[in-house]
Amino acid sequence: MSYTISREDWSLHRKGELDRQRHQEKVKEAIKKNLPDLISEESIIMADGDKIIKIPIRSLEEYHFRFDQGKQKHIGQGKGKSEVGDLLGQTVPKSDKGPGAGEQPGVDYYEAEITIDELAEMIFADLGLPNLKQKIKAEITSEAVEFKDVRKKGISSNIDRKRTILEAIKRQALKGKGELPLLIPEDLRYKTWELTYKYESNAVVLAMMDTSGSMGTYEKYIARSFFFWMVRFLRTKYQNVQIVFLTHHTEAKETNEKEFFTKGESGGTRCSSVYKLAIEITMQRFNPQDYNVYAFHFSDGDNLTSDNDLCVKLINELLKICNQVGYGEIEGPYYYTTTLRSFYKKVEHPNFTIVTIKDKTQVYPALKKFFSL
After folding, report:
1. pTM for the whole thing?
2. Is the domain 201-370 a CATH 3.30.450.20 member?
3. Which helix (DSSP H) or strand (DSSP E) does residue 369 occupy?
4. What's phi and psi for 113, nearest 5 deg?
5. 46: closest CA among 135, 127, 116?
6. What distance lies between CA 291 and its chain's CA centroid?
7. Are 313 and 153 in contact (CB under 8 A)?
8. Which of 360, 269, 367 is nearest to 326 (CA)?
9. pLDDT digits over 293-352, tens only?
10. What is the number of other CB atoms lying within 10 angstroms of the CB of residue 29?
């Protein structure tokens, strides 16, 4: 086997590959712009990671010269006083929906396929557990691939081009020759990688959801959408993080993951019950000296009026033992102006975050606000 180093410019030969890469980048960019709509799609929530979803993407075309098929005469200059950025020629009128058959051309769309795991990778790219502190015992591990060594044997996809050429040049230099060498197998160098583990401090996340009668189908769907992506995010980026699922109406209880996402309840609302339970579980099972504790609660804010002051007091108690406390309030069709959120304005703490969700497109911004590093 032999290799030859050439001075020829091969960029034109790789045009197809470069165009494909550019196309893929454009597709990813289009998907990222639609993330707020995508992550709250009902068909995606609770689906398997390898499920393939289809996303409509506007057709992408390469830049090209457009020739006049009528072969009419044109003057190749403008009217004068033109500036950079001015449009030359006529633009195609916008094709709007209207009565009757239209005459204007439409915009071509095609469906890009992407798995939910690939979508999750885009969503979680900039997210992480905020205020993560070093604790006495470290258990959480995150994986990373590192190229740590260079060897003479390996697979062709891992060839280290720079080191290979340097080896060939050194071999030629030892012979007193300065021309570009012909590569031989002894020149080849391959990068080798190792799977490394980063050990971080323990963490537990308390997922608290209002399941009372005032939380209708829409409100529960929004809350479950948020927690669905939160759980997937935590399990994707942190191997051993623990998640405790709590639901409440006038009384709070710990439940399993399946019931948390599927079971509906009714009754009145006493949010203080879930805060009390969260504090009890934390102190009994997750000592704050050993664990980073995070608590996130979603409700429609329609709480028992006499309970609101106690909720404020308990939120302050949670903040003493938690790295971060988040409260999300969902504004449904029967939203009340005086809600729990108005009482939480009294809480002034840098680690307390409030979000308001008015429609499903705001689930993604809520994730970013709660888990921004």
Report:
1. 0.66
2. no
3. helix 363-370
4. -100, 135
5. 116
6. 25
7. no
8. 367
9. 999 999 999 999 999 999 999 999 999 999 999 999 998 776 666 689 999 998 999 999
10. 10
